[in-house]
């Protein structure tokens, strides 16, 4: 159910991250190596990136498969950034939301992606949705579980939570309301990355000497420095540091 990637480090072209590596995110759209649910990620894609001096990211999304978009090919060749979040989508349910349902979702300085599915959607998530302000519900970008998950995360970010807390608490709430959900979340503000491993694969590669960190659903090359994140774990990272914290489910 989707593949995603976030990067912070020295400026690189989008292509260097997303299309040039042997097992790149583009290739993962039709041939993922470690995806546990679904086989082809052709239901849309999106890329968000930050320009130097501007805290609000740019974003490019489409409803179709990334491999057929010639505009992306041009963007990937020339756009450079020191912080990127990108995703390719395998829709949980068929729908008409088009590119509005494709990650990354954004608000202010944040970019967000969800790899997974809320089990027994939408009934299971109704109590959590009811606790959101009506304005937040009316502003949902799409009628999908990922859009609601983003609304829960965004509410905490706007309240002042750090990136890690803003992911960890909704994961605990959703796993309690909808046991068996897959909740691999990915978030960046352009300076740091937070992610959760909850039901699907997650890996990271860090190069403190080079000042770069990549967090991804699966490695995009065969570099031996890639490390797998254990399931039920929160990852927080900067360009030079990665921290892993076990996540526990809420007990009722």
Automatic annotation (TrEMBL):
Residues 2-252 form the Glutamine amidotransferase type-2 domain. Pfam families: GATase_4. It is an enzyme of class 3 (hydrolase). It catalyses: gamma-L-glutamyl-hercynylcysteine S-oxide + H2O = S-(hercyn-2-yl)-L-cysteine S-oxide + L-glutamate. The keyword Hydrolase applies. It comes from the Bacteria. This is Gamma-glutamyl-hercynylcysteine sulfoxide hydrolase.
């Amino acid at each position: 159910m989707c593949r995603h990637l976030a990067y912070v480090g020295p400026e690189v072209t989008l292509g260097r991250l997303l299309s040039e590596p042997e097992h790149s995110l583009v290739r993962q759209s039709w041939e993922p190596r470690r995806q546990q649910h679904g086989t082809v990620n052709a239901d849309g894609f999106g890329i968000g990136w930050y320009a130097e001096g501007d805290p609000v990211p740019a974003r490019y999304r489409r409803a179709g498969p990334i491999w057929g978009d010639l505009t992306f090919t041009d963007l990937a060749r020339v756009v450079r950034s020191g912080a990127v979040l990108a995703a390719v989508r395998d829709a949980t349910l068929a729908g008409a939301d088009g590119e509005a349902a494709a990650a990354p979702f954004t608000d202010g300085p944040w970019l967000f992606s969800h790899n997974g599915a809320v089990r027994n959607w939408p009934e299971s998530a109704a109590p959590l949705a009811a606790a959101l302000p009506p304005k937040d519900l009316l502003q949902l970008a799409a009628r999908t579980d990922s859009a609601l998950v983003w609304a829960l995360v965004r509410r905490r970010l706007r309240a002042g939570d750090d990136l890690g807390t803003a992911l960890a608490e909704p994961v605990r709430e959703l796993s309690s309301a909808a046991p068996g959900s897959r909740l691999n979340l990915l978030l960046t503000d352009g300076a740091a990355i937070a992610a959760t491993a909850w039901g699907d694969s997650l890996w990271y590669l860090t190069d403190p000497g080079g000042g770069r960190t990549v967090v991804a659903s699966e490695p995009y090359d065969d570099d031996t420095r890639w490390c797998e994140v254990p399931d039920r774990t929160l990852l927080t990272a900067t360009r030079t540091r990665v921290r892993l914290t076990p996540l526990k489910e809420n007990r009722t």
